[in-house]
Design goal:
Heat Shock Protein 90, six-stranded mixed beta sheet, 8 strands
Length: 178
C-alpha cells in the first residue's frame, strides 16, 4: 500500500476472465479457511441453508477487458471480505464491477447485520467498528473501508454506504477515468 501511495495511481487493463478466476480463487480460499462451517455458492440451485450465495459480475467497455486502477483489486477483496464477515451463513452477497467511458463503478450489497444509522459516517474511520459488530469475532485491521473511502476521495470519486441495521449494507463507489 505504501509503495502504491508513493507511485500514485496506476491504471491498467485487466482481462475480465482472469479477474473472475482470481475472485473465484479468493472465494475458495475464504471457504477453505472456514473449515467446513459454510460453503460459498454461486448458483442458487446448489444453495443449502448455511451456504453463502455470492453473485459477482464484471462488465468492461469492450467485453473482454476492464481498465481500472490496480488497487481496485485489493479494495474489492476488502469490501467483499467485509460483506462476508458481517453476513451470517445462509446470507446473500451481490457485487458488480462496471466500466463506462468515463468511470469505474463497484457495488457490493449484503444481507448482513447492517450498520446503525447514526454510525454510518464513522465506519470509514480507521479501526472503527459499528457497535453491533463489536461482539463479532473477525480478523483484519479495520482498514478496508477506510482504504476504499480515502482512495476514492483522493481520486475525485464518490463513495456511498447505505445500510439498515438487521437488513444489510450496500457500499458503492465511483471513480472517474483519466
Amino acid at each position: 500500500m505504501a509503495m502504491r501511495l508513493n507511485e500514485g495511481v496506476k491504471w491498467q487493463n485487466f482481462l475480465i476472465d482472469e479477474l473472475h478466476e482470481n475472485f473465484n480463487q479468493f472465494f475458495n480460499a475464504v471457504e477453505k479457511n472456514a473449515k467446513g462451517r459454510y460453503r460459498i455458492i454461486h448458483n442458487i440451485a446448489e444453495k443449502e441453508p448455511k451456504d453463502y450465495l455470492i453473485h459477482f459480475e464484471i462488465k468492461g467497455a469492450d467485453g473482454k477487458h476492464i481498465f481500472m486502477p490496480d488497487v481496485m483489486v485489493d479494495i474489492m477483496s476488502d469490501l467483499l471480505a467485509n460483506a462476508r464477515k458481517y453476513t451470517n451463513p445462509g446470507g446473500t452477497i451481490d457485487a458488480g464491477l462496471s466500466e463506462t467511458e468515463t468511470k469505474i463503478l463497484f457495488r457490493v450489497k449484503d444481507s448482513g447485520i447492517g450498520i446503525p444509522y447514526e454510525e454510518i459516517p464513522k465506519v470509514v474511520e480507521y479501526g472503527y467498528r459499528a457497535s453491533n459488530a463489536e461482539a463479532k469475532k473477525t480478523f483484519g485491521g479495520g482498514f478496508g473501508l477506510t482504504k476504499a473511502y480515502r482512495f476514492v476521495k483522493e481520486n475525485g470519486g464518490k463513495f456511498w454506504v447505505d445500510s439498515e441495521e438487521g437488513e444489510g449494507t450496500c457500499v458503492k463507489l465511483e471513480i472517474p477515468k483519466p
